[in-house]
Amino acid sequence: MEILKRKLPAFFIILILALSIILMIPGMLFAQEDEAAEEEIAEPVPEELVFETKLPKLQAKDGETFIFNFDVAYKPGDEPFGIEEDKSEKFFDITVDYPTSWVAAVVSSSQEIPGINLKFNSKDSLMLMAIPVVQLEPGEYDFKATFKSAAEGDTLEGSIEFTAVVTATYEISLTTKTGMLSTELTSGKDNHYKLIVTNNSSTSVENISLSSTEPEGWQVNFDQSTIESMEDGEKIEIDVNINPPEKTIAGDYMLTFSASSENSNDSINLRVTVETSTIWGIVGIGIIVVVIIGVAVIFARLGRR
């Protein structure tokens, strides 16, 4: 009995501890469920503008128009803000930032639009059109279209950026100094003619060669047959010496002059009228006179008989 009395307090202590643990378990389980429930509550989705484009960077020659195609969608958030119908659409003002020497605008159905009404979860296909207004240096030019809510106090806005890569244009032109494509030449003599080479490229052009195609036996020489370098917009006068052979028959002939570089070339056809030299004219007249005198003498002798 004595031993039993000693063990009873220990038994009650263990029993009380066990009951306390059992009672605490449901509370711990509910606490874990509450934490899990709190974690499962998603953050509210904010309003946003979503932009999509397949080609944010385009490349073209100087002077060409750049057209960037893109889509824009208005995604309202989950948090209510006034009447539910307000979420069905919003009007956005559109501004375009572009470099100097350009004009650019957002276009829909071939018309510039300063703003657009975007419907809930609806995608609109638009274009940003960029046009250079002066000759540009080769390089990259950046554009940015910004859509901002027109509603008072609404800060929702979004933007999309594009890059135009302008490459150099190469164009050399060949003309005559007089602007005419015909002239007169004298056979057997040096005939000087002026050509003008112009660099209409957007950059310098190197190693321009000058050449000609002429009738057989003719001599055509340039005072410089190669131009090492020309700056954009530069003009150079070329002297051409054309020498038809002495016995060239009088009449019209065609000569072709060409200017060519690695990236560009041009050519012109020059119609030339050849006149015989004065000496040959005198000789021809003399021969005719001699023939006439000879015929007259023959007729005079025959008349005496």
What can you tell me about this protein's structure?
The protein has helices at residues 2-40, 278-304, and strands at residues 48-52, 57-61, 66-75, 89-97, 102-108, 111-112, 115-119, 123-132, 139-149, 157-167, 172-176, 182-186, 191-199, 205-213, 219-222, 226-230, 235-243, 251-260, 265-275. The protein has two helices and 19 strands. The strands form four sheets. It has a five-stranded antiparallel beta sheet with strand order 1-3-8-5-6, with no helix packed on it. It has a five-stranded mixed beta sheet with strand order 2-10-9-4-7, with no helix packed on it. A hairpin with a 7-residue loop joins strand 9 (139-149) and strand 10. The model is unreliable at 79-86 (pLDDT under 50). It is α+β, with helices and mostly antiparallel strands and 305 residues long. It is 22% helix and 47% strand. It folds into two domains: 48-167, Sandwich (Immunoglobulin-like), CATH 2.60.40.10; 172-280, Immunoglobulin-like (Sandwich), CATH 2.60.40.
